[in-house]
Amino acid sequence: MIGTIAGILTTLSFVPQVIKVLQTKDTKAISLGMYLMSVIGIFLWMVHGYVMGDMALLIANLITFCLALVILIAKLKYK
Asked: Partner of 7 for a Cys bridge, out of 17, 21, 29, 60, CB 3.0 to 4.6 A?
């Protein structure tokens, strides 16, 4: 139960930033290096979940990966 709550909160924590970036197109205060490393790390967790057959880990990281990728792309687009 704790892991499920942690996964949901961690995944959903990216939603407010995605909304703000898409609405304002302001990414000046966002660290490119941090989001690049986060997207790569989340992708690797997603692969790990797939290899281990852990669907909860795979799905949570797939959603998080998509959200973080939106922010990373916006950062590159709205420099």
From this structure: 60
- Average confidence (pLDDT) over 60-67: 95
Alpha carbons 5 and 29: distance in angstroms, whole number: 29
CA distance 42 to 34: 12
Other C-beta atoms closer than 10 Å to the C-beta of 35 total 20
Q: What's the predicted TM-score (pTM) here?
A: 0.90
User: Is residue 53 predicted with pLDDT exceeding 90?
Assistant: yes
Query: Does residue 1 register a pLDDT over 90?
Result: no
